[in-house]
Amino acid sequence: MKIKLKQFMLLLFVFFVQIATAQDGTVSGKVTDKTGLPIPGANVILKGTNVSTQTNFDGEFTINAKEGQTLVISYLGMQTIEVQASKALKISLQDASNELETVLVVGYGTQVKRKSTDNIARVTAKDIQQVPVANVQNALVGKLAGVQITQTNGKVDGGVKIRVRGAASISAGTDPLYVLDGIPLITSNESTNGAPTNPLLTLSPNEIESIDVLKDASSAAIYGARGANGVVIITTKKGKDGKGTFSLNFSQGVSTATNKKKWLNADQYVELFTEASINGTGDAAEAESTFDFLAQGTDWRSRQVNTDWQDLVLRDGLTTDADFSVSGGDAKTKYFFSGAYNNTKGIVVNNDLQRITARTNLSHKVSDRFTAGMNLSFSRSEIDRVQDDNAFTTPLQVVAQSPLSQARLDDGSANPNTLYANYFLAADNSFWKTIMRRLTGKVFGEYQLLSSLKFNSDFAYDLLSQTEDYWQGKNAPFMATDGEVYATSVNNETYIFSNYFSFDKTFAEKHTINAVVGMEFNKYHRRYQSVTSIYFPDDSFQTIDGGAEVNAGEGRETGYTFVSQFGRLNYSFANKYLFKASIRRDGSSRFGKNERFGIFPAFSAGWIISEESFLKENKTLSFLKLKGSWGKLGNAEIENFASRQLYESNPYNLKSGLTFFQAGNDNLTWEKSTQVDFGVEFGLFDRINVEVDYYNKTTDGLLFEVPLAISSGASTINKNVGKIESKGFEFTLNTKNFSTENFTWNTSFNITTNQSKVLSMPNGKDIVTTYTINRVGENISSFYLVEYAGVDPANGDALFIKNTVNLDGTIDRSTTNDYSQAKRVVAGNPFPELMAGLTNTLNYKGFDLTFTFQGEWGASIYNSAGRYQSVAGDYFDNQTADQLRRWQNPGDITDVPQARLYGSNGTGDSTRFLDQADFIRLRNLTLGYTLPKTILKEAGISSVRLYATGVNLLTFTKYNGTDPEARRDDTGIGEDFYSAPPARTIALGVNLNF
User: Its membrane topology, per UniProt (predicted)?
Assistant: First the structure.
């Protein structure tokens, strides 16, 4: 074939024109974060077109665009920006965690914070990762306005109490509903040793993408009957488009107690109790005789033994964390795999935790319309536990032992002859091991029916399985047989089937509608068994089959069912007038047959004033929104058969029989919480964001056991009576203090007030417990105690204020040394009335620093162990060092009465043992350094970050006890009873990304 020169030249000309045109229409660039690290998988879109691409592993991209055109760059968790296309673009994305465009996760969907009329608090992965705590909840402390998070005490398995906007109940559950990737989690406490376990120990922080707390009725009403205590939505990490990434994190830390009480040493003990014996019995003989017993042959007069029992049971802990994750995807398939290992040696002896977790999240786009996926996780937590705070064989009760007694004898064995049972006898001859296994999974499908309408179907399953093994050898304290083994097994399982439609469309560029409507079915089942075996041939046999006699056994099965229909509508006009309505109808088998179903509606509205013409161009006020909401929620956290008339087996003389056990109530139903919320959000200079909210929630129809006449055959019946109210203000401030190429400094501050009061009670009567009262007009569970008045300087008697009523109706505030003549009064609030958190995040080149201060004010703690440990030698329990300032001579001015052995001088329950729990704590601090990328390029590593982090580093408080956050773990509200302080932890770690 012959090619003509003219044709060839024409072809060559066209070819070069195409090359030139292609070169003119292509721009390249690199996307990094604020520290200069590349961001793989960032989306780059040519604005107004379908032309798009993603950054590669090194954050680089090339896109068909002409110089001057607009590119939109976005990445999850980063602020979306627009830039003008040019050659060799260098683009830095800023964190968007506190920006108005943050996407919040709500029930069965998401919504942008700018257009939200709800009150939702949020933390993201960066807020909780690399904080060396055994549970997720502790990493949230101080970061969420209106949310109080308190770990019961310093045991690694200690329960965690979360209250959202104060207490919403008295006798029913007060914990929020936890939802993991759409799965309402089982959070029941299955411990049988008196102290609760924390079911959320089974979650690992490394797999969490974000946590959204739904605080108001507008947001929580989509969960209806279970939303009154708030909803905590946990979202796990997902794969993203782009090259696969591998992340590895390892840290190790040491822990100590945040504080230790000061106790009498041997010299002080002998001095105080000799004096107490003389004052109480007339001579020192009683004390010296007891000293001889406690010393067990050692010379107490020369102080041969001076045991610091507290130091023996509070040790240095050790925490090891290792985790990895692999994630990535393409246009069709996205994946995320992770695994984590935690090994925590607690600060309390013989209290340890080992946990392994694994997660797989997959999604696949089967077609242009249909996407399917699966989330699956497994966790195993093995805990070496100790007894609850009220047991003589719990470690912290050793502080009651005398310093004159040896903990161990010369041969290393535990001393069996101490004032109380020696804990080390229990440590050597018993163990309590708990294993928690959790399997959580969900399969889901999403079908795009129309461009604006999709259908979701989810099937989820949650299994929480727990075993406990309690072995006591023949030499264990209080052992009456040759050993005993107690073993339990419990399976809690729930499955949830959800189907819902979602509609999202904008009409005429001004009317935006987002709607969700669907149904959900939830089935729960629990099976529990326990067995006890005694008479073992040898201590090497530590399982049930080694005993000669199985002398006890128990088994129970229970369950409940929820069936629900729900709907939600969001409407906005011109992106400035906002309206939302939601409703849920719940039915539950827990309630009476006449009241099985409840309807829970909510409404909210908002006005983005800054979108109005008179403010739109305002340079100072960058954002302004008013919002308000109203709604009804329920609390269904009661026993599964609380409404039924029940009988229990009652065998006699090997004959079966039944006994009337519980009176039925066909009208028993949910506690109903009505909530109102008003708020304003505004931004200044695009650097300051402020959110202020007022809330008021009233809970009516409280679930109480109301007394019945003896003739009825049952002592009580469950009824809906009583009313309480919680109200307060929330203030959140987020600021960008500095933002330059090399240095950024952001601050987040929140403060919350709360007052929870009783509005009505069953039959208008007070409900009084050992230390607290629920009375109309007072705070929920107020402390109710005799008022301590100090010491009579003339004779050293403890004095109390009478608080009796005079004939003229006035209160007699005179004092008496007769405890029985004084009346109890409301003396304090177990819940804080003011909470605050302050977090600062600073970045300078490769360095990053984050620290959080947290504070609480207005709460009181009652030390119910004070009547044993702080009473100037009333009995031979070792005393706190402050008892050395006891009254000794006429005219002495002090708050500690005269030391009188067996004298009961000031030992009655009173405000003497009540203290304010106000504190400010440096909750966590993290300092990190990211190595320069140039150093890592040869190794194929995208980033290496070295960090040091600390938890509970500093505490500022006037509280006289062990710690203002330590609470007894067996029962009670706001009590300290030989409770372990929290751990102070310092850890070093490294994070690698490939």
Answer: Multi-pass membrane protein
Token pair, residue 3, equals: 């090619």
- Alpha-carbon gap, residue 854 to 833, rounded angstroms: 14
| Longest pairwise C-alpha distance within the chain | 134
Helix (H, G, I), strand (E, B) or coil at 544: helix
As a whole number of angstroms, the distance between CA 975 and CA 572 comes to 49
| Sheet arrangement for strand 52-54 | 52-54, 43-46, 70-74, 81-84
Residues 406-457 have pLDDT tens digits of 999 999 999 999 999 999 999 999 999 999 999 999 999 999 999 899 999 9
The neighbouring-strand residues paired with 471 are: 431, 485
* Segments of the chain assigned to CATH 2.60.40.1120: 5-92
Residues with Cβ < 8 Å from 627, sequence gap 6 or more?
Answer: 117, 578, 604, 605, 606, 607, 677, 678, 679, 680, 681
CA distance 757 to 780: 5
Q: How far is CA 779 from CA 764, 768, 800, 917, in A?
A: 15, 13, 24, 16
Chain centroid to CA 107: how far? 20
pLDDT in tens, 454-491: 999 999 999 999 999 999 999 999 998 999 999 999 99
Over its C-alpha atoms, the chain yields an Rg (Å, rounded) of: 32
The answer, as to whether pTM is greater than 0.90, is no
Closest alpha carbon to 81 in 50, 43, 52: 43
Integer CA distances (angstroms), 524 to 21, 220, 634, in order: 65, 22, 19
Q: Which residue has the tokens 């007072």?
A: 778
**What class does CATH assign to 5-92?**
mainly beta
Amino acid at 434: T
* Residue 3: count of CB within 10 angstroms of its CB: 8
211, pLDDT greater than 50? yes
Summarize pLDDT for 478-527 with one digit per residue, the tens: 998 999 999 999 999 999 999 999 999 988 888 999 999 999 999 999 99
Where along the chain do the CATH 2.40.170.20 domains lie? 137-241+254-258+314-787+827-864+911-993
Listed in sequence order, the DSSP H helices in 386-516 are 423-429
Alpha-carbon distance of 468 to 196, in angstroms, equals 13
Q: With contact defined as beta carbons under 8 Å apart, do 735 and 688 qualify?
A: yes
Read off the amino acid at residue 372.
Answer: A
CATH annotation of 137-241+254-258+314-787+827-864+911-993: 2.40.170.20
- CA end-to-end distance (rounded Å), the chain: 55
Provide CB contacts within 8 A for 787, sequence distance 6+: 800, 801, 803, 822, 825, 827, 910, 911
Give the count of beta carbons closer than 10 Å to the beta carbon of residue 840: 17
| Overall residue count recorded for the chain in this entry | 994
Residues 6+ apart with CB under 8 A from 765: none
- Cα gap 920→118, rounded to integer Å: 30
Distance of CA 541 to the CA centre of its chain: 39
Helix, strand, or coil (residue 474): coil
Q: Which residues partner with 626 through β-bridges?
A: 607, 680
Amino acid at site 346: G
**By 3-state DSSP, what share of the chain in percent is helix, strand and coil, each rounded to 5?**
15, 50, 35
Contact 715, 659 (CB under 8 A): no
3-state SS of 221-277 is HHHHHHCCCCEEEEEECCCCCEEEEEEEEEEEEEEEECCCCCECCHHHHHHHHHHHH
Strands 177-180 and 231-236 come out as parallel
Helices and strands in the chain, H and E counts: 10, 55
Asked if 744 and 34 count as a contact pair (C-beta separation under 8 A), the reply is yes
Q: Find the helix or strand (DSSP H, E) in which 332 lies.
A: none
Query: Residue 687: phi, psi to the nearest 5?
Result: -130, -20
